[in-house]
Amino acid sequence: MDKVRIFNSHRKTVEALEKVVNTDEQWRQLLPRDQYMVTTRKGTEAPFTHTFDDITGPGIYQCVRCGTDLFDNATKFHSGTGWPSFYQPVSELNIHIQPDKSLGMVRTEVLCARCGSHLGHVFDDGPQPTGKRYCMNGTALKFNRE
């Protein structure tokens, strides 16, 4: 199996983990419909559906499909968009970005580096220190308190 280098934010180490590879049909059977539509079919949840606004304190947002650490709660900010927004991932190793030319526009898609789950998009209108806004679908994330 192919391996991918992933940063484990709890241990503060980089680990070589097996990629998680499933067929579209396997994901459909493994996930609830809303998670399948967003993570596998590259859908978008309705705004203000899963903002995680009620979550405070330390913790890590992980990929709902494979558990990869993606974003630290300390980097979350209120963007007013209706989707969870972060100014940086826990590590560039844990995400993959690629051009997205769907819907008649050019955006930058954010995927989980381990399983390829569609997470959302990144924009250049976020706060400092990065100036980035990782606008994620809450359906694609799960929160793990530290």
**CATH class type:** Mainly Beta
At the fourth CATH level, what is the homologous superfamily?
Answer: Peptide methionine sulfoxide reductase
**CATH-derived topology:** Metal Binding Protein, Guanine Nucleotide Exchange Factor, Chain A
Give the strand line-up of the largest sheet.
5-6-10-9-8-7
What CATH architecture would you give? Beta Complex
Could you say which overall geometry the principal axes of the C-alpha atoms support? globular
Detail the poorly predicted runs.
none
Number of helices: 2
Task: Describe the protein's architecture and organization.
With 146 residues, this protein is mainly beta. It has a single domain, classed as Metal Binding Protein, Guanine Nucleotide Exchange Factor, Chain A. It is built from 2 helices and 11 strands. The strands form 3 sheets. Strands 5-6-10-9-8-7 form a 6-stranded antiparallel β-sheet, with no helix packed on it. It is globular and about 40 Å long. The chain starts with a strand and ends with a strand. The model has no long low-confidence stretch (mean pLDDT 96).
